Amino acid sequence: MTLTLEQLNAAPAAEAAALLDGLYEHSPWITEAALAQRPFRSMAHIKHALVQVLAQAAPEQQLGLIRAHPELAGKAMVSKTLTAESTNEQNKAGLTDCTPEEFARIQQLNADYNARFGFPFILAVRGPRGTGLTKKEIIDTFARRLSNHPDFERAEALRNIHRIAEIRLNDKFGYEPVLGNDVWDWQEKLSVHTDPGYAELGQLTVTYLTDAHRACAQRISHWMRDCGFDEVEIDAVGNVVGRYRPAAESGKYLMTGSHYDTVRNGGKYDGRLGIFVPMACVRELHRQHRRLPFGIEVVAFAEEEGQRYKATFLGSGALIGDFKQEWLDQKDADGITMREAMEHAGLCIADIPRLRRDAAQYLGFVEVHIEQGPVLNELDIPLGVVTSINGGVRYVCEMTGMASHAGTTPMDRRRDAALGVAELALYMEQRAAQDGDSVATIGMLQVPNGSINVVPGRCQFSMDMRAPTDPQRDAMVADVLARLEEIAQRRGLQYKAELSMKAAAAPSAPEWQQRWEAAVQALGVPLYRMPSGAGHDAMKLHEVMPQAMLFVRGLNGGISHNPLESSTADDMQLAVDAFAHVLNQLAQETA
Amino acid sequence: MTLTLEQLNAAPAAEAAALLDGLYEHSPWITEAALAQRPFRSMAHIKHALVQVLAQAAPEQQLGLIRAHPELAGKAMVSKTLTAESTNEQNKAGLTDCTPEEFARIQQLNADYNARFGFPFILAVRGPRGTGLTKKEIIDTFARRLSNHPDFERAEALRNIHRIAEIRLNDKFGYEPVLGNDVWDWQEKLSVHTDPGYAELGQLTVTYLTDAHRACAQRISHWMRDCGFDEVEIDAVGNVVGRYRPAAESGKYLMTGSHYDTVRNGGKYDGRLGIFVPMACVRELHRQHRRLPFGIEVVAFAEEEGQRYKATFLGSGALIGDFKQEWLDQKDADGITMREAMEHAGLCIADIPRLRRDAAQYLGFVEVHIEQGPVLNELDIPLGVVTSINGGVRYVCEMTGMASHAGTTPMDRRRDAALGVAELALYMEQRAAQDGDSVATIGMLQVPNGSINVVPGRCQFSMDMRAPTDPQRDAMVADVLARLEEIAQRRGLQYKAELSMKAAAAPSAPEWQQRWEAAVQALGVPLYRMPSGAGHDAMKLHEVMPQAMLFVRGLNGGISHNPLESSTADDMQLAVDAFAHVLNQLAQETA
C-alpha cells in the first residue's frame, strides 16, 4: 500500500500524521506541524515544509531530536533495539557487516564524538544512492566531522536527519527517483575509470587524455548512442558531442553539458552531473519519440580542470575558437607534450579550428553543476539558480615593515607588517560582505621565519576577490587597494601587490535564468538565486551566446574537489525534472 | 684654542654663533636658535638644545638640512668640494681609501638611495669611536637602510646629523670622552675573541665556556686587576668577580655588572657595557686612592643568553642559589655536556652552591645596559632610567575554522581561522597600547599549506605579552584571552593556546631608581623613564636585593642581537659619569 499526494492532502490531521509515522526518530511533532501546510504540490514541497518546521523549532527541541537517534553501528544495533527504520538503514549501508577492526574504530569514533559534542553522530547511510558513501567513506566522514565546530556539527546532524526522513518519505510514497537513480548510476559507473596510481589508493583522478580519460569518453559516447542521440562523436580535442535533432532541419540547437575530467583525488559529480542530467532528458524524449522545435547538443567537455596541462577550459574553449596553439608544446609531469598525447589518442589536431561553433545556430547554453559550496546544503534547498559566474582577480602580495624586538619596541614605535595585513583582511571581509554576492579571501598568509619575540618585519599574503559583475568586482578591488595604500601610509609600511589572475564575470542571460527559475518553482522547490563563485565551462560559451546555470546541492557542507563530495539521487531527479521543464518551456516558446 | 662652557655662555649672540660655526652643514640657523637657551650646564645640555631646535623645525627646513649634506664618498669627495669638516670625517672613516669595488658599490647605493628617498644617505662616519662601524659595516648599514620606510629614514638622517654635530662640537671644546673611550676600547679589544667558525665570517659569537669565552674571562680579570680591584677571581661557574673594598671592613657592598657572553653573530655592547662602565669608575677611585663607605663588587656574568645550553641567566642565577643540577647533563650541539665543559675549563662544580650571596651584605644591585630598543635613539636622549623589567608570558596557539572554497563560500558562511587571528592581533595591539608601557606581539603567524583560493581552515600563531608589573601583565593577558574566546564563539572557531613561558616582572626599587634619576639630571641629560622589555641579569638579583638599571641609547634604530648594534663613546662617557654620580650619592648617604 503506497501513499499518494492526494491521499495525504485529503486526510484528517490525525490520520495524515499516522500516514507519515516514523519519518523522524521518536519525534512525530515535526511531521504534525508540517502537515499544517497542506495541500502539498509535490514531494519536494513536503520535504521543504518538514525542513522549515525543524528550522523554526527551539534549540532544545532540535537537540532532543538529535539525541533521539541511535549511534552508528552502536549498542542499539548490536542489541537489536533500533527502530525498524534504523535497522533497515544501517543494514543497507553494510554497517551490520563490519570487520572487527571497523567495528572497533566506529565505537571509538562514537565515544570521541559523544564526548566532544554531547550527541550521537548522525549520517544518512542508507546505501550508495542515499549518500554516495561506501563503508570506508562513512568512517572517513565520521573522522572528519569529529573536528568540526559544535555549531556546525549540530546543523550537520539536522541536515542528515532530514535526509533520512526524505528516504523514509520516499518509501512511504513508493517513490523512486528513477531518472535520478540513472544519473547516479552513470556517475558511479564512470568513476571506476581512474588514472594510474590512483586506483590503488581508491581515488578518482581523470586527467586529459590518459587511458582512463579516453575510457570515459568511450563510455559516455556509448551511453549517448543508447539514449537515442542521432549523432555522437568524439571531437578533435576529445569532447564527446551528442546531437538530438530538432523536429525540422532548420531548427536551432540548445547546447548544454559539462566536463568529464576531474581534479586529482576528486569527487564523482563535479562536471559529470551536467552531462548525465540532459542525457537522461534526451533519453526520455527519444523514448517518447518526441522531437522539439530545436535540437539538443550535449557536450561532455574533455578538459576543464587544468590538471595535466595548464590549459583550463580547453574543451569548451575549443568550441569558441579559443584553442591556443602553444598549448600543444606544453609537457606534462612525465615530459609528454599535449601534441603527443593528442596524437596518441588519435585526435586530429588539424581539425581543432573547425570545432568553432557558429553561435547563430544556437539558442543558448545551459549547464547543470553540483554547487561546490555550502549554501544550498545549509539552507536545505536542493536547487539553486545561478545569477552570474563571478569575475575574479588574484593578487600575490607582500607587506614590509621593520622587524624589531618584541620586548623592547613600544607599541607606538612599531612597523608591524602582519598587523597591516590583519587590518586589510578584516576590511576585505567587511567590504565583500557589504556587496552581498561578492567574496574576498586572504588564503595564503605567513610571516616568513617569524619568531615568538620578534615584531614581524614581513608578511606574505594573497588576495582573491570575486563578484557577479565586473564593475562590482572592480569597485571592490579599487576599495581594497585604496585601503591597502591607506594602511601602509598610516602604519609606515611598504607593500607589493602583483596581479596574478583576472577573469571577467559571466552574468546569466536574464531570459535563460528566468527559465530555470520557472522550472524550479514548478517543482515546488523554493527559489534560491545565487552567484557561482567557481569558474565553469559556461564562462567560455558566455563569450558567444547567452547562458545560465543550475546548481545542485552538495552534501557534507558542500565539500568538493574531494572524495567526500556527495549528492543524492533525489536531488539529481529534481535536476532532471528542472531540465525537462526548461526544454518544455523552450518548446512552447519556439513552437 | 679650545672653547669653554663659560666662554660660550658669556659671549654675545653673534660671537657665540661664530664660536659654534660649522656644526650643521651649511645651516647656522640651528646653532643660533639653540644658543637662546644659554646658559648651558654641560656639553650634554648643549647637545640636547640643538636636538630640540631641529625637532621643532618645519619639515621643509629639516629636509633642506638633510639635502645640504654631501653624498657618502660621493662626487663632492672626489672633486674635493666638501666642507673641511666633511673631508676630515670621510677621511677618518677610511672612505677616501676605498677599493674600486667598494667605491662602485657605494656609488650604486648613493644612486638607489637618492632615487628612493630624494635626499642623500647620511651616516656619522668619523671613525670607530664615532659610530662603531668599519668600512664594511658602513656599507652594510647603507644597504640595510635602503629598505627602510621613508619616514623612518628621514628621522634616521636627522639623528645622524646630530651625531655629526656632536663630534664637531667636541672638537671645538677640545673635549674627549676619555673614560667613554676607554670603555669603548675594552669592548673593542674583547670583541676579537669569537667562537670557532665565526671569526672567519667576521662575526662575534661568545658562548658559554668555549675557548673564546674563557679568553674573555681571562682578559676581563686581567683588566680588573689593572684597574685596582683588590680581589679578582673567576668563580665556579665562570663569572669574573672583582671586589673593591670599602673604607672599613664592616662596610657592605654594592653589586653591579652584566654578562660577557653573546648571542650568535651579536653586537659588541650587549652586556659588556655594564661590566666596563663600573670598571672605569673603580679605576678612577683607585687612581684617586679613594675608598667609599661601601665596597663595589663588579661581576662579569658568564652566561645570560642561553645559546650553548638552555640555561639562561646561569651566571647571575648562581649568585642567588638558582643553579639547577640537571643543567650539568645538558648537551650542546656537539654532544658535550655542561659538566664536561665546566671540568674542561677547570671550574670546581662542587663549589657552585657556595656562590650564593648573603643579601644582607649588599646595598643592592645596579646594572648598566645598552637599550636594545629604538626609544632613546628616536628621542635623541642618551640615557634612560629603567622603571621595571617587564614580566612576560608567551603562548603558542592555533585557531581552527573550516577550510572551504574561496569562490563558492559566501562571506557569512565562512569559518575563516585567519580572520579570527587578525581580529585578535588588532585587539592585542590596541590593548597593549592602552597600557602605555605594555607590549603584545604576534610574532609567528601562518596559515599552514594556505592556497590562494581556499578560505583558511587553520592558522598558527604565537602571543608574547609583557608589562612592567605582574598585575598589569595578568590583566592584559586575561583581557586578550577573553577576547580570543569571544572571537572564537562569535566566528564559530576553535582554538588552542598553550602557555610556553611565564616570567615575573622586576620593578626597580624606588630609591635606586631615584639615584639614577638624580644622576641623569645632574648631567644635563633629559630624564626619561622607561620599562625594559628584554630580560636582564638584574631580574635574578631582584629576587634577593633591591635593583635598578640604566639604559644607554643604541644607534641604528636601537638594533641589537646583530653586528650593527652600535653606540658612541660620548654616550658611554655619560654612563660612566652617571655611575660615578650614583657612587657619590651612596657615599654621602652611607657616610
TrEMBL record, chains A, B:
<dbReference type="InterPro" id="IPR018020">
    <property type="entry name" value="OHCU_decarboxylase"/>
</dbReference>
<comment type="similarity">
    <text>Belongs to the peptidase M20 family.</text>
</comment>
<dbReference type="InterPro" id="IPR036778">
    <property type="entry name" value="OHCU_decarboxylase_sf"/>
</dbReference>
<dbReference type="InterPro" id="IPR011650">
    <property type="entry name" value="Peptidase_M20_dimer"/>
</dbReference>
<dbReference type="Pfam" id="PF07687">
    <property type="entry name" value="M20_dimer"/>
</dbReference>
<dbReference type="GO" id="GO:0019628">
    <property type="term" value="P:urate catabolic process"/>
</dbReference>
<keyword id="KW-0464">Manganese</keyword>
<dbReference type="InterPro" id="IPR036264">
    <property type="entry name" value="Bact_exopeptidase_dim_dom"/>
</dbReference>
<keyword id="KW-0659">Purine metabolism</keyword>
<dbReference type="InterPro" id="IPR010158">
    <property type="entry name" value="Amidase_Cbmase"/>
</dbReference>
<dbReference type="GO" id="GO:0006144">
    <property type="term" value="P:purine nucleobase metabolic process"/>
</dbReference>
<keyword id="KW-0378">Hydrolase</keyword>
<dbReference type="InterPro" id="IPR017580">
    <property type="entry name" value="OHCU_decarboxylase-1"/>
</dbReference>
<dbReference type="GO" id="GO:0051997">
    <property type="term" value="F:2-oxo-4-hydroxy-4-carboxy-5-ureidoimidazoline decarboxylase activity"/>
</dbReference>
<comment type="subunit">
    <text>Homodimer.</text>
</comment>
<dbReference type="Pfam" id="PF09349">
    <property type="entry name" value="OHCU_decarbox"/>
</dbReference>
<dbReference type="GO" id="GO:0016813">
    <property type="term" value="F:hydrolase activity, acting on carbon-nitrogen (but not peptide) bonds, in linear amidines"/>
</dbReference>
<feature type="domain" description="Peptidase M20 dimerisation">
    <location>
        <begin position="391"/>
        <end position="488"/>
    </location>
</feature>
<keyword id="KW-0479">Metal-binding</keyword>
<dbReference type="GO" id="GO:0000255">
    <property type="term" value="P:allantoin metabolic process"/>
</dbReference>
<dbReference type="InterPro" id="IPR002933">
    <property type="entry name" value="Peptidase_M20"/>
</dbReference>
<feature type="domain" description="Oxo-4-hydroxy-4-carboxy-5-ureidoimidazoline decarboxylase">
    <location>
        <begin position="9"/>
        <end position="170"/>
    </location>
</feature>
<protein>
    <submittedName>
        <fullName>2-oxo-4-hydroxy-4-carboxy-5-ureidoimidazoline decarboxylase</fullName>
        <ecNumber>4.1.1.97</ecNumber>
    </submittedName>
</protein>
<dbReference type="Pfam" id="PF01546">
    <property type="entry name" value="Peptidase_M20"/>
</dbReference>
<dbReference type="GO" id="GO:0046872">
    <property type="term" value="F:metal ion binding"/>
</dbReference>
<keyword id="KW-0456">Lyase</keyword>
